[in-house]
C-alpha cells in the first residue's frame, strides 16, 4: 500500500486578481509596519510566482485582514440599506395581500391599515439615511464627532 498522502481536493489555481488581492494585503501590512521592506519583497515575489491558492494563503496567513476603506464601508452600508427597503417591499406585499383578502371576505373596501406600519418602517429607513453617524476620522477637522452622510 502506498503511504504517500495526496490531498483529496486538487490545488486550486489562482488568477491574476487573486495575486493582486494578496499583494494588496502585503502592501497594507508593509504600510502598517507588520512586515519590513525586505520581508515584503520576498513575500511579494512569491505571491507573483504563486500558482495555487494554498501558496497565496501561506503568504498572508499570519497577517490580519486590513480594515475596509471609507468608500468600501459606504458601499457596504448602502447595500444593507437597500436590502432593508427590499424587506419593506416584501412586508408591503404581504400586508396588502392580507388587507385585500379581508376586503374580499367582507365584500367591501375597508380602511387601508398597512399604511401605519409601513409608514413607520419607511420613516425609520429614511431617518437612518439622513441621520448623522459616528466616525473615527479625527483628521477631518471635526475632532471625530458626528458627520452627515
UniProtKB/TrEMBL annotation:
Q: Which InterPro entries match?
A: DUF1707_SHOCT-like (IPR012551)
Where is the chain membrane-spanning?
A: 111-131
Give start and end of each DUF1707 domain: 12-64
Domain of life the protein comes from: Bacteria
Q: Which residues form the signal peptide?
A: none
* UniProt keyword annotations, A-Z: Membrane, Transmembrane, Transmembrane helix
What is this protein's record name? DUF1707 domain-containing protein
Q: What is the lineage of its organism?
A: Bacteria, Bacillati, Actinomycetota, Actinomycetes, Kitasatosporales
Amino acid at each position: 500500500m502506498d503511504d504517500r498522502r495526496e490531498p483529496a481536493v486538487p490545488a486550486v489555481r489562482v488568477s491574476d486578481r487573486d495575486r493582486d488581492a494578496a499583494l494588496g494585503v502585503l502592501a497594507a501590512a508593509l504600510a502598517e509596519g507588520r512586515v519590513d521592506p525586505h520581508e515584503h519583497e520576498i513575500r511579494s515575489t512569491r505571491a507573483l510566482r504563486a500558482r495555487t491558492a494554498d501558496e497565496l494563503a501561506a503568504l498572508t496567513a499570519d497577517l490580519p485582514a486590513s480594515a475596509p476603506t471609507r468608500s468600501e464601508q459606504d458601499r457596504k452600508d448602502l447595500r444593507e440599506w437597500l436590502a432593508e427597503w427590499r424587506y419593506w417591499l416584501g412586508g408591503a406585499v404581504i400586508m396588502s395581500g392580507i388587507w385585500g383578502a379581508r376586503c374580499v371576505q367582507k365584500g367591501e373596501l375597508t380602511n387601508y391599515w398597512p399604511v401605519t406600519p409601513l409608514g413607520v418602517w419607511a420613516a425609520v429607513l429614511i431617518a437612518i439615511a439622513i441621520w448623522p453617524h459616528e466616525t473615527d476620522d479625527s483628521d477631518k477637522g471635526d475632532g471625530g464627532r458626528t458627520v452627515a452622510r
